[in-house]
Write a structure and sequence with these properties.
Rossmann fold; alpha/beta; 302 residues; six-stranded parallel sheet
Length: 302
């Protein structure tokens, strides 16, 4: 088959959605299918990653016109429902709900948030690249001074920078923990221990050196940063308003709603670290499994 994907593969420190596209393209070409990124003759199925315009200015309306002219089907992966300050994307996704032929949601939360009630869908949780398991250790003891990390390649306020700054001050004043922030930061935001974005090889090597992963991100449709932490063997302390993060991490850490609860949850994980660590080490999913499910859907729908 010739499959059109409306986002091109990317390299470097991009989010998990880009990594999933890369893996899906590899999987499709491995099994002899042709993948194109512009609307052209002979396409058998459209796989929509994002309804907004791509590098060639092709948006969902163009996909819909092509579908009608050529009697083919659209599979839509709803990786973002616009909750991070993109209300126009929320409306765009809702516009698509009775027009695409099949939907893939990365979490139960995303499906509920967009109020999708049809049966032509599947909830397939995101999963990390297999590279993130390369340096995962089996040790269940914690550092004398616990080391806590988070990482974001986006500066969107919904990532929770206010809480990260508050926790950074707490660590500096109490000396209880070492907190590290890796990634992009908004103007004026500074951390005692900071590292700019890195590629997958460096990230998968660095994360296992820490004890606990902290996320303050909210309303995530398919949060990949926590999955990378799980693959590296880190228990996760996460916000109860994290969206998909709650779906992904409820077995592998503790949640919080307020800053006081954040501190309390971290202390609970520290005090019973081996229990949380052993549970996380049971997590073994990779995005190979995810794209295999996508592939099966493409075969069935196309």
């Amino acid at each position: 088959m010739k499959i059109y994907i409306n986002r091109k593969p990317k390299t470097g420190p991009w989010g998990g959605g880009a990594k999933t596209v890369n893996k899906l393209v590899d999987h499709l070409t491995h099994f002899g299918h042709s993948v194109v990124y512009r609307l052209e003759r002979g396409i058998d199925v459209i796989f929509c990653i994002d309804p907004r315009p791509n590098d060639y200015g092709e948006n969902y309306h163009h996909l819909l016109q092509y579908k009608k002219r050529n009697s083919i089907k659209i599979i839509q992966r709803v990786g973002d429902v616009g909750t991070h300050g993109k209300p126009e994307l929320t409306e765009y996704v809702k516009f698509c709900l009775d027009k695409s032929d099949f939907f893939i949601f990365p979490s139960e939360w995303a499906k509920e948030k967009i109020q999708f009630e049809g049966k032509n869908c599947s909830v397939i949780h995101n999963a990390p690249q297999e590279d993130f398991y390369n340096h995962r250790g089996g040790k269940t003891d914690i550092s004398k001074k616990p080391k806590i990390i988070t990482h974001h390649w986006s500066t969107n306020p919904k990532k929770g920078f206010d809480l990260y700054e508050q926790f950074d001050v707490y660590c500096r004043e109490t000396g209880e923990y070492e907190f590290y922030y890796m990634g992009q930061v908004p103007p004026g935001v500074m951390f005692v221990n900071y590292h700019p974005p890195v590629d997958v090889a460096q990230l998968s090597y660095g994360l296992p050196k820490f004890d606990i992963y902290l996320t303050a991100s909210e309303d995530e449709a398919g949060a990949n940063h926590v999955l990378e932490a799980l693959a590296c063997g880190l228990p996760v302390v996460y916000r109860s308003s994290g969206g998909s993060i709650v779906n992904y991490c409820k077995k592998y850490g503790l949640e919080y709603s307020t800053f006081d609860e954040l501190i309390s949850s971290i202390k609970k994980v520290v005090d019973d670290y081996s229990t949380y660590k052993n549970e996380v080490l049971r997590y073994k999913r990779t995005n190979i499994e995810v794209v295999s499910k996508y592939y099966d859907i493409i075969q069935q729908v196309g």
